[in-house]
Amino acid sequence: MPESERSGVLTHFDAKGQARMVDVTEKTVTHRMARAEGHITMAPETAETIRAGTTRKGDVLGVARLAAIQAAKRTDALIPLCHQVPISGLEVGWDFLDATCLRCSVTVRTQYVTGVEMEALTAVGIGLLTVYDMCKAMDRGMVIGGIRLVHKEGGRSGTWNRS
């Protein structure tokens, strides 16, 4: 691996500052995992409708779960310099933090030469956008936020946890 990729230099740019896909040819295949989360805040009535499963469009969280899974599998098509990663496991979780805030948590796993942080983050974002899309007719004031990596394992940098 080139020294620049070990020293904290931005690896998606070459010496001339042009965008490039990082060469992972020499990296070792290891177990890698990433967990990301985000939330959507909404009116209490919207949250109650989602909980009850009575929206006009059907099972909001079920559809949003499928959208998150699909997004993780297609991350390389959405983010230009991401590698196509073989996902070996993916879980999507939903929980209400209070009467108006719904959290989406996604855990992605692989045995590969590069991590799955972008897949987890993309899945959270698309999952939350799907909730917005399915509920916007009753609540256009919903706010998506807090999308972040909370944990990762594997690769040269090992384990990382958000404090």
Describe it for me?
With 163 residues, the protein is α+β, with helices and mostly antiparallel strands. The chain has one domain: Molybdopterin cofactor biosynthesis C (MoaC) domain (Alpha-Beta Plaits, 2-Layer Sandwich), CATH 3.30.70.640. It is 31% helix and 28% strand. It contains five helices and five strands, in the order αβαααββαββ. A five-stranded antiparallel sheet has the order 2-3-1-4-5, with helices on one face. Strand 2 and strand 3 form a beta hairpin. Helix 3 packs antiparallel against helix 5. The longest helix has 19 residues, at 117-135. The protein starts with a helix and ends with a strand. The model is unreliable at 1-6 (pLDDT under 50).
Beta-strand percent range: 25-35%
Overall geometry: elongated
The chain-level mean pLDDT equals 92
Oligomer status: single chain
Quick structural summary:
This protein is an alpha+beta fold and 163 residues long. 31% of the residues lie in helices and 28% in strands.
